[in-house]
Specification:
This protein has 256 residues and is α/β, with parallel strands linked by helices. Helix content is 21%, strand content 36%. A seven-stranded antiparallel sheet has the order 4-3-7-1-2-6-5. Strands 11-10-9-8-12-13-16 form a seven-stranded mixed sheet, sandwiched between helices. Strands 14-15 form a two-stranded antiparallel sheet. The protein is globular, with a radius of gyration of 18 Å. The structure holds flavin-adenine dinucleotide and FE2/S2 (inorganic) cluster (FES).
């Protein structure tokens, strides 16, 4: 794990409160595994020096890309980082996704939850389908970037029907599971997004007897296992999302 001083290369708003942040991280970029996260020190929050955790959307050629939504004080302060500024970034952190899959990889993302799935889709061999969901079309993010990977089929759902199927992302997911099952195929689930969606995906993995890999989004403070702010209940007791996670096997998760 490194604490690297990184130069902001690009910081662009893409609408509906979402932004791309690209920074140079020559050492860290080569060691990141899909599903791992970085802990970004937000300069404008000094002197409290608090960090914020973000999944890695992409890591290539010494550059790391994040896709983030402005939701509160830390992310609003991060908005002020300009190309040329230096940000301190700790990583790679946590336990990522397995980068192998037996059968079709079903990637399920809600809102900015597509971020680690993009990095995964680039590294995962074999057939992949992305199921992207959101409240409206504006929450379906980075679909053009998934298209650029070349071998990812994309299916979408929105609550208001402004893009894709009207309903939940689990609607097209259920259709695909039935289709693959009836053809005798194998599949695995990989998911990141809001808790309700993650629980629904994890339950499907268990009910259908297939491997499921779930990236949990918990409030974090230290990011390195010391403060116990990020607890997730699992069959092994209380697990720290920042160390034992954020990616857990679906069968190990216990839900409220
Ligand atoms: C492993 C991991 C990966 C993440 N990856 C991304 C990512 O790729 N893109 C992205 O936009 N965000 C991501 N997040 C969430 C991001 O860290 C939070 O949105 C951010 O820390 C909020 O900071 P803030 O100071 O702006 O908000 P705060 O002022 O701290 O909180 C504002 C609101 O957001 C809620 N909130 C704060 N942290 C979280 C959280 N972790 N999950 C859910 N709600 C939260 C608070 O309860 C509050 O309602 C990730 C979180 C984790 C743990
Ligand atoms: S954030 Fe401190 S233990 Fe996980």
């Amino acid at each position: 794990m490194l604490n690297e001083k990184c130069t902001v290369l690009e910081h662009v708003e893409i609408g509906a409160g979402y932004r791309w942040l690209v920074f140079s991280a020559p050492v860290m970029a080569s060691g990141l595994v899909p599903g791992q996260f970085v802990h970004v020190r937000v300069p404008a929050l000094e002197p409290s020096a608090l960090r914020r955790p973000f999944s890695v959307f992409d890591a290539e050629d010494g550059k790391v890309t994040l896709l983030y939504k402005t939701v509160g004080r830390g992310t609003a302060a991060l908005n002020g980082a300009k190309p040329g500024d230096e940000v301190e970034v700790m990583g790679p952190l946590g336990h990522g996704f397995p980068v192998k899959c037996d059968g079709v990889a079903l990637l399920v993302g809600g809102g900015y939850g597509v971020a680690p799935l993009h990095f995964l889709a680039k590294r995962l061999p074999g057939k992949k389908i992305l199921f992207a969901g959101g409240r409206t079309a504006a929450d379906l993010l980075a679909l053009d970037r998934f298209a650029r990977i070349g071998d990812v089929e994309v299916r979408t759902a929105t609550n208001d029907g402004s893009a894709g199927v009207k309903g939940l992302v689990t609607d097209p997911l259920d259709a695909a599971i039935s289709e693959i099952e009836s053809g005798g195929g194998r599949m695995e689930l990989f998911a990141c997004g809001p808790d309700g969606m993650l629980k629904a995906v994890a339950m499907r993995a268990v009910e259908h007897g297939m491997p499921g890999w779930i990236s949990m989004d918990r409030h974090m403070i230290c990011g390195v296992g010391a403060c116990y702010a990020c607890i997730q209940k699992t069959v092994r007791g209380n697990s720290r999302c920042c160390v034992e996670g954020p990616v857990f096997a679906a069968k190990d998760l216990l839900w409220e």
